[in-house]
Design goal:
The protein is an alpha/beta fold. The protein folds into two domains: 10-57 and 93-277, TIM Barrel, CATH 3.20.20.70; 289-351, Antifreeze-like/N-acetylneuraminic acid synthase C-terminal domain (Type Iii Antifreeze Protein Isoform Hplc 12). The chain contains eleven helices and twelve strands. The strands form three sheets. It has an eight-stranded parallel beta sheet with strand order 5-4-3-10-9-8-7-6. Strands 1-2 form a two-stranded antiparallel sheet.
């Protein structure tokens, strides 16, 4: 039975009752080599991720070929300082003619393959490849015509929420639902590259879920696995991380991308975090029941003759747990033993 808000993407069920859905984002880390792109797919599959995601655009669908003013990156803190937006997107884009080869390799290796479209022509192209879902990037989460176009496909929609206000997200989610998309995942995202843990604000996650009655996740630009693992405890069902073969190889996104061994650790540790959530539970679990015998209990600590009184000298609360619980210690003090007993005998009511 499909649970409320449970989503199907490819062969995977996504929701609180399933292990986290891990997406490796290739972005521009192929460094304009199809061979490297396919190697990234293979490394992602080896790391155990569930999906690989591309970005579908061209420099011309993203911006204008202008190298000054607002179209030039002057921010000294930016990884891309000194580039025009147009040249940056020329370097980072994934050639559209590569998509099918990359998606086919994903399918061969059991990975779900989909993409982020950045304009309507990209949606039409991705529909021709029959992608099972779509992702909306943070910088496009207020592009309501694009949201409407993607939502009209009826396929699951994963939306990064970076920079968006509650009012903007409300517009986005309403637009998507009115256009025909009911399966929505909102990803908490900090749109800095890399992002710092202190700016991640994971406590927003359950609030997002409550506000919009949808699944939540994390598009994570921090280094390491800690932030992503923590998000699972707050209800994240989807984790997206940029992925590369090696940060030393360079590339537009390499500096904040995970390497294969890190991604493998992320898959393992997020699943462990999800498993650890369990349910509200008190008392011994089935696995703990054998350990009950190692609790402390009351034992005779010296040989005793029938009729002797239990005292602090001949009774101790020790391990193992075959005797009376320690809470009866004061109650049996001064009582008489019914028969001869040896040191190491568990104290039971029949001895009193």
């Amino acid at each position: 039975m499909k649970l409320k808000n449970e989503i199907t993407i490819g062969k995977y069920q996504i929701g609180p009752n399933h292990s986290p859905f891990i997406i490796a984002e290739m972005s521009g880390n192929h460094n304009q080599s199809l061979e490297r792109a396919l190697a990234i797919v293979e490394a992602a599959a080896e790391a155990g991720v569930h999906a690989l995601k591309l970005q579908t655009y061209t420099a011309d669908t993203m911006t204008l070929d202008i190298s000054e003013g607002d179209f030039y990156i002057e921010d000294t803190n930016s990884l891309w300082k000194g580039n025009s937006l147009y040249k940056l997107y020329q370097e980072a884009y994934t050639p559209w003619e590569w998509h099918k080869s990359i998606f086919d390799r994903c399918h061969e290796l059991g990975l779900v393959a989909f993409s982020t479209p950045f304009d309507e022509s990209a949606v039409d192209f991705l529909e021709s490849l029959d992608v099972p879902a779509y992702k909306i990037a943070s910088f496009e989460n207020t592009d309501l015509p694009l949201i409407r176009k993607v939502a009209a496909t009826g396929k699951p929609l994963i939306i990064s929420t970076g920079m968006a206000t509650v009012a903007e997200l409300d517009e986005t989610v309403r637009t998507a639902r009115e256009a025909g998309c009911q399966d929505i995942v909102l990803l908490k995202c900090t749109s800095t590259y890399p992002a710092n843990p202190e700016n991640t604000n994971l406590r927003t996650l359950p609030h997002l879920s409550q506000l919009f009655d949808c699944q939540i996740g994390l598009s994570d630009h921090t280094m390491g696995t800690g932030v992503a693992v923590a998000s699972i405890a707050l209800g994240a069902t989807v984790i997206e991380k940029h992925f590369t073969l090696s940060r030393d190889d360079g590339g537009v996104d390499a500096a904040f991308s995970m390497e294969p061994e890190e991604m493998k650790a992320l898959v393992i540790e997020t699943e462990r975090a999800w498993q650890a959530l369990g349910s509200i539970s008190y008392g011994p679990t089935e696995k703990e029941k054998p350990s009950l015998k190692h609790r402390r209990s009351l034992y005779v600590s010296q040989d005793m003759k029938a009729g002797e009184m239990f005292t602090k000298e001949n009774v101790r609360a020790i391990r193992p747990g075959a005797g009376l619980p320690p809470k009866y210690y004061e109650e049996i003090m001064g009582k008489k033993v019914t028969r001869d007993v040896k040191q190491g005998t568990p104290i039971t009511w029949e001895l009193i």
